Amino acid sequence: MKRSFCGFALSLLLFSMPNAEVQSGTLIVFYFSKDQIAVAADSRGLFIGTDRPPDDTQCKVATINGQVLFASSGGTEFNPRYSLGPVRSWDNIAEARRSYEGIYSNTVGEHTLRMVADAWGTTMVSNWQSLYFVNKRLVQQTAERQNGYLTQALWGGFDTAKSVTLFLTEIALDDASIKPISYRIRRINSCPHELCILGRGELAKELLLGATDRAKAEIANWKPSPSYDPKFRELLRAVRLIDLTIASGDERTVGGEIDAVQLSSDGSVLWLARKNNCQAD
């Protein structure tokens, strides 16, 4: 995500930042079982508060050291064109890698994964707070588009007993609080539907529920290509839901190519699709 700020000094930026930009918009669909964690995501980022066309090259999914699967929605990258004093550039995936390296273990168990998610949450709160003090309205607009959240991050891995472990870190804005930017972490134990959805997933949820005519038709008619290994079935379905959302045109915040990856309890990482500009691990 590219953000640019026009001005010559921080003192000027505090009063006039007409070209400040934050990107918003994501659809992430994921699935997990005792043996697998599979994630698919679109590539679109919208520039809030500007007329710029969307950026369809965003990287929202990554694997870390072959042990952790990470995906984030909302604001995923900040890169100021000019120096903003306390506001430094950041990238959600890069920060996730740094958090992992700072709490490194040869095996990622539940306790360690939670610690990594905590470290990432603390860093991201600091990043967003710095931006909030420079451009409060921009941060507010970002949260307004995402039901109060600035960014959400999924963490998945397997512990020493090969049991699946997933956490969701949520960075939120509350203007009424003394500390307006905060985060929370919650364990993911199940999904309200067969697949889990983060971001702009109204059509995906409709298709999963199977209540409408088009949802019933999709459930009855869709079958994965026989050219794919059956172990990719749920990941292929996740890709299908995002693809249908893009094709429908109902949600302009979702678009671009779809990245899809699967992490298994045996330690294997299999990318079904990945853009060339996105790092594999």
Quick description:
With 281 residues, the protein is α+β, with helices and mostly antiparallel strands.
Mean pLDDT: 84
Largest sheet features: 5 strands, antiparallel
Uncertain segments are: 1-19
Q: Identify the CATH architecture.
A: 4-Layer Sandwich
Rg, rounded, reads: 19 Å
**Count of strand segments:** 14
- Looking at CATH, which topology would you report? Glutamine Phosphoribosylpyrophosphate, subunit 1, domain 1
CATH homologous superfamily identity? Aminohydrolase, N-terminal nucleophile (Ntn) domain
Share of residues in helices: 25-40%
Main features:
14 strands; five-stranded antiparallel beta sheet; 7 helices; disordered N terminus; about 30% helix; about 280 residues; alpha+beta; Glutamine Phosphoribosylpyrophosphate, subunit 1, domain 1; globular
List the helices and strands and how they pair.
Layout: H1 10-13, E1 22-24, E2 27-32, E3 36-41, E4 46-48, E5 61-64, E6 68-74, E7 77-78, E8 90-91, H2 92-102, H3 110-134, H4 136-144, E9 149-158, E10 164-173, E11 181-187, E12 196-199, H5 202-209, H6 213-221, H7 233-248, E13 259-264, E14 269-273
Antiparallel strand pairs: 1-4, 2-3, 2-12, 3-13, 5-6, 6-9, 7-8, 9-10, 10-11, 13-14
